[in-house]
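Q: What does the assembly look like in three dimensions?
Context provided by user:
Components: two
Sequences:
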Amino acid sequence: MENLINIFVKSIFIDNMVFAYFFGMCSYLAVSKTVKTSMGLGLAVIFVLGITVPANYMLNKYILAEGALVWLDPSMADVDLSFLSFIMFIAVIASMVQLVEMIVEKFAPTLYSSLGIFLPLIAVNCAILGGSLFMQERGYTSLAEATSFGLGSGIGWLLAIVGIAAIREKIRYSNVPAPLRGLGITFIVTGLMGIAFMSFMGIKL
Amino acid sequence: MSDKEPLFSAKNRKLLTNPLGSDNPITVQVLGICSALAVTAKLEPAVVLTISVTAVLALANVIISLLRHTIPSRIRIIVQLVVIAALVILVDQVLKAFAYDVSKQLSVFVGLIITNCIIMGRLEAFALGNRPWPAFLDGIGNAAGYGIILVIVAFFRELLGSGTLYGFQVIPQAVYDMGYENNGLMILPPMALVVVGIIIWVQRSKDKSLIESN
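A: Here is the predicted structure of the complete assembly.
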């Protein structure tokens, strides 16, 4: 249990998707103009990460990893399908995103229209695929660990995008040098936020 | 577009050169930021990733452009993802076979070429509506524009952060003896963002038409 909380907190603050690995920067920069839309996108990312990471964990454990097909037949112990993991992961992610899109369109049409093209683009958001690939690379040992990593990463991403959206709403009233306006200042503010987040680095649970 | 158009007509040359400057994928189109920032602590991974992205982007552009009349538009995203993922698996296997150390260093970022927005963005915006040869040039051009930013960022981060370039020591020992220290902050992730921010600042100061309203 302690281990699960450790992974959860670590993936929110220390290994934050945005500040430590720059995952999902494209939508992070493009959708962070207002707090409301960024909140919606953040929730969608949490949901998709919370489903795809455990789903891909099962896929990896029972089909893709070396010797994973033993449950089918003992003679398949040395079959290694892990070279297929990219294409399998992206297929799971794309279908999950399609599902989320349909749910959001049905129950929150205003959010759906304000997110626009960025909802289908969650499928190609690096944060989602990155979550699955990190899960595979770090070798989490149980489904619970994979789930808490997925949810934690999603919450960390939400935290980052809502934070930058709030700052950008205020920055609109400041006198930024003309060439830095928009994209440039957002990069630099994100860098400063990243330095602030680094102060969590020493924390051990 | 006639068939007799020369291979390097003015229009085709523009496809190659525009992404290097006024239509740069990273600083103007805001595509493909994630990997650009994460692998630039050293020059070597940055160069390797640039080559990989060039190969994937040029080939994917050509393939999608050849298939553009047969792909139903409702499922085009899945088709594009399958083409990209297949190409990235090839690149990944090649890297693992011939450049294992760099492949370990790049870790998940090779796989993340799949979700690199440059590739999806160019496929959507260009390859779906153009013939294979211009699509190929567009792929090479955009990958080069992406690579240039990667190399510039990696150059400054490696030079100031570890005093080396491509793994070779360039700042002589005598300078260290006089009290110079490597700036450890440059190696840390947040500084990549600041360096890109400064590049955008320099570029937009030169080219006023790129300035955004707040």
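Follow-up: The longest helix of chain A spans residues 35-64.
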